[in-house]
Design the sequence.
């Protein structure tokens, strides 16, 4: 419903909350104090570990507070709250016009690219938020040979990557070339689904006759945008259970991550804004918006004309994997590509309002599981507090795509139980505090 | 505005079918066979169907009431059990025997295990096995279908005496014992396909079962694994016997068309609760059902073997599931 909506710039709100944990890895250390003056693009949270990413202020203003703010995944997390100085603040616009066809990455060294990407705080913008420099840095232990660009955007409703590919084609291409250079990959494959032919065409034109980069059209299928699934569809290779793509010589980057790399390396611009798809029947003006990271969902809702009356669920992300939020002051993060607003009718028609029955062992969840797991067995083991059995059935191999819950005729929250099981297991192993 | 917002785990959308709609699909698929049963056995069929469905529902309600559990009648599984049980009984069975079978099927076959989804054995087959053990003669008295019996008065409840006849499988058993010619049975295969032979209420018409089964396959309510593997194993076993000694054993197509084979293939063995979860497991399960059925029919004492074959394989389902444990796409990993 938003694929034909061009990216629109959202004016900076009165205040932003920059969460210090917007990525996989160690939380940032704040670099500013209360009442400090910050300028747009200034680093306000420092990464002190290898797997971490700094955060920057998208606006010019004053630090109002460093306090706990709602976080879609972690509940509450420390954030730097900044009041925008309306007089001094200037709008930040997309940089796509500064990139043209035939970008040449040879004037940048690998080290230069990696440092710029690290300083810009770039993380995987498809949703996982893994720090990008760790992914693209050359690693002698795991040499990479193929760079996969994930342009699948397989969740229903989400169109931000699609718009970025069409409108920022040259910027995306520049980022891909820079990432290819840094990661020392011989080959680049852009995996795109067949419902985005216009974007594929735009990319093909921009590639021209570069034989190292190819566009591969895939049949539209959820959850193809998961990196494990994408690697399997495109290369026929399988990432080992519990492993990561570089183990088989592959590096996977999202489209918007590539665009951010280009901005960081060429223009020295940190990652402070991203394109977010605002979608669903319960929002007045759905579309694709260029949003400052840290803007509260509520402010964004207001900018988009507010919720329509029967709004019943606000989802940070898409309808399959997104997190439902109850607090509209939750800030947008670097990883959040969409906000989905479902109506009461849609929610009531969805499973959890319907009557749940016992599992009838129909096996549909096994059929759809992209990782070939046994979701009903794992979920029921978790329900019975038998994490040992759940682990025996490879609990941790779950990618949380939600397909099992989607197809379950008994309306059992299989995916929910499995996610709960993973958290309980991590607590047991003392990886996260209880 | 906020008060109206709800949260839940992802995913936030779902497919529109449910346990109830799957059960309704099965009931719909059983309709051709029910109608065929009513056509061939008239009031016997109606009485038996009503008695079994009604007592199955009542038993389920009562069990839930005794256990202070919420009512589960609206998942429609009791209706399915009732229909399947009635379909697998001789048409002229007194209605009270049907009720006893239904009570046993639901109470002992399903509710003592914890209700839908927890039972180890197919409830309808448990009910039928109980009746076979309790009322041996009644359970082997086969009424001649109405179109063949001019004396069977249409819809006259006071007439209880009907002409009886041996089923094709009973004939084939006689043939194995050398007391009859297999050709007698083979000649009946056309009638068996349509249902103009003696036999259980719903089992006689192979055509009606086939229609229902194909409907379930097209709708995706059942997967192809079990039907294909049962039919394959049964055909192979029957063919072996037939090829070794055609004077004793009837040809494979008779075994497929006669008796409860098609009902077992499409409706009994495919009961998801009591069948294995994985495709590989279903194939093993189906092979077992097919082979055991033929073993009982050709070597055992009973002329029909679907019921015991399914029950025996039900007992193996947990083992098969363990044997066919799925390995993740990325291998076993390091735990």
Sequence:
């Amino acid at each position: 419903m938003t694929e034909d909506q061009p990216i629109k710039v959202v004016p900076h709100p009165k205040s932003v909350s920059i969460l210090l944990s917007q990525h996989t890895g160690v939380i940032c250390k704040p670099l500013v104090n209360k009442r400090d003056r910050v300028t747009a693009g200034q680093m306000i949270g420092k990464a002190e570990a290898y797997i971490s990413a700094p955060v920057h202020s998208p606006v010019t203003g004053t630090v109002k507070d460093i306090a706990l703010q709602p976080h879609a995944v972690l509940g509450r997390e420390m954030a730097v709250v900044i009041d925008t100085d309306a007089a001094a603040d200037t709008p930040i616009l997309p940089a796509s016009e500064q990139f043209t066809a035939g970008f040449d990455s040879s004037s940048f060294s690998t080290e230069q690219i990696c440092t710029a990407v690290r300083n810009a705080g770039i993380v995987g913008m498809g949703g996982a938020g893994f720090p990008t420099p760790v992914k693209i840095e050359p690693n002698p232990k795991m040499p990479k040979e193929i760079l996969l660009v994930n342009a699948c955007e397989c969740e229903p409703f989400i169109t931000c990557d699609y718009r970025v590919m069409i409108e920022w084609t040259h910027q995306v291409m520049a980022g891909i070339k820079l990432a290819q250079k840094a990661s020392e990959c011989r080959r680049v494959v852009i995996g795109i689904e067949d419902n985005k032919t216009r974007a594929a065409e735009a990319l093909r034109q921009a590639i021209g006759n570069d034989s190292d980069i190819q566009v591969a059209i895939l049949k539209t299928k959820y959850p193809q945008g998961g990196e494990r699934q994408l690697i399997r569809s495109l290369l026929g290779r399988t990432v080992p259970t519990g492993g990561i793509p570089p183990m088989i010589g592959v590096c996977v980057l999202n489209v918007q991550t590539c665009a951010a790399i280009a901005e960081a390396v060429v223009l020295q611009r940190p990652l402070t804004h991203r394109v977010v798809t605002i979608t669903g029947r319960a929002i007045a003006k759905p579309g694709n918006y260029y949003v400052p990271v840290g803007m509260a969902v509520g402010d964004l809702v207001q900018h988009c004309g507010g919720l329509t009356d029967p709004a019943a669920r606000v989802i940070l992300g898409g309808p399959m994997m997104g997190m439902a939020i109850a607090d509209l002051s939750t800030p947008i993060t670097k990883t959040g590509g969409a906000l989905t607003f479902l109506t009461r009718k849609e929610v009531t028609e969805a499973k959890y309002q319907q009557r749940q029955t016992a599992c009838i062992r129909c096996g549909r969840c096994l059929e759809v599981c992209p990782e070939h797991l046994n979701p009903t067995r794992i979920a029921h083991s978790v329900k019975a507090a038998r994490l040992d059995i759940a682990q025996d059935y490879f609990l941790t191999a779950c990618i949380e795509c939600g397909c099992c819950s989607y197809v379950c005729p008994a309306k059992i929250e299989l995916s929910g139980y499995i996610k709960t099981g993973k958290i309980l297991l991590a607590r047991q192993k003392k990886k996260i505090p209880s | 505005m906020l008060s109206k917002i709800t949260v839940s785990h992802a995913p936030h959308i779902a497919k529109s079918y449910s346990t109830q709609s799957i059960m309704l699909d099965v009931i719909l698929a059983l309709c051709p066979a029910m109608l065929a049963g009513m056509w061939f056995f008239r009031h016997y069929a109606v009485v038996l169907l009503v008695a079994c469905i009604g007592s199955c529902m009542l038993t389920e309600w009562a069990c839930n009431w005794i256990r202070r559990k919420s009512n589960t009648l609206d998942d429609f599984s009791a209706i399915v059990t009732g229909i399947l049980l009635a379909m697998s009984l001789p048409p002229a069975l007194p209605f009270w025997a049907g009720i006893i079978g239904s009570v046993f099927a639901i109470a002992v076959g399903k509710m003592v295990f914890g209700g839908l989804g927890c039972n180890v054995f197919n409830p309808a087959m448990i009910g039928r096995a109980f009746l076979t053990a309790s009322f041996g003669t009644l359970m082997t008295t086969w009424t001649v279908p109405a179109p063949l019996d001019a004396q069977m008065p249409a819809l006259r409840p006071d007439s209880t005496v009907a002409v009886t006849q041996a089923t094709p499988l009973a004939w084939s058993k006689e043939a194995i014992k050398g007391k009859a010619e297999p050709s007698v049975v083979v000649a009946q295969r056309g009638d068996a396909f349509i249902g103009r032979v003696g036999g259980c209420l719903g089992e006689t018409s192979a055509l009606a079962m086939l229609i229902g089964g194909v409907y379930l396959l097209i709708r995706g309510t059942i997967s192809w694994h079990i039907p294909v593997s049962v039919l394959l194993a049964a055909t192979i076993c029957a063919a072996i016997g037939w090829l070794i000694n055609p004077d004793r054993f009837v040809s494979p197509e008779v075994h497929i068309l006669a008796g409860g084979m098609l009902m077992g293939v499409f409706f009994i063995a495919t009961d998801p609760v009591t069948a294995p979860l994985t495709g590989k497991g279903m194939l093993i399960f189906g092979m077992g059902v097919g082979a055991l059925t033929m073993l009982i029919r050709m070597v055992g004492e009973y002329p029909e073997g679907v019921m015991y074959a399914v029950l025996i394989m039900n007992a193996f389902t947990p083992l098969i599931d363990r044997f066919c444990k799925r390995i993740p796409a990325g291998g076993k990993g390091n735990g």
Remarks:
- The CA atoms of residues 58 and 272 of chain A lie 5 Å apart.
